[in-house]
């Protein structure tokens, strides 16, 4: 669950740590494998691709071309 939560927050590196731990604890854990594959392919949740819903600090400047 922690791996998915970090993935959903856009924190791929942290998600990967949790997913690796889940895989070690329960070899073949399908959700961990699927999320790891998604991370390796650079997949983002839909809300992470939209500036209005992405986790961005309020003080962060807008990027050119941001949706």
Tell me what the structure shows:
This protein has 67 residues and is mostly helical. The chain has helices at 2-8, 12-25, 30-40. The longest helix is centred in the first third of the chain and has 14 residues, at 12-25.
List keywords for this structure.
48% helix, single chain, 67 residues, mainly alpha, 3 helices
Summarize the SSE layout with pairings.
Layout: H1 2-8, H2 12-25, H3 30-40
Summarize this structure briefly.
The protein has helices spanning 2-8, 12-25, 30-40.
User: What overall geometry do the principal axes of the alpha carbons give?
Assistant: elongated
The assigned structural class equals: mainly alpha
Give the count of structural domains. 1
Percent of residues in helices comes to 40-55%
In DSSP terms (H or I, runs of 4 or more residues), the helix count works out at 3
Detail the poorly predicted runs: none
> What is the residue-mean pLDDT, rounded to a whole number?
81
Report the major sheet.
none
SSE topology string: HHH
Q: What share of residues are in beta strands?
A: under 5%
Please give the radius of gyration in angstroms. Answer: 14 Å
Number of strands: 0
Span of the ends, CA to CA: 29 Å
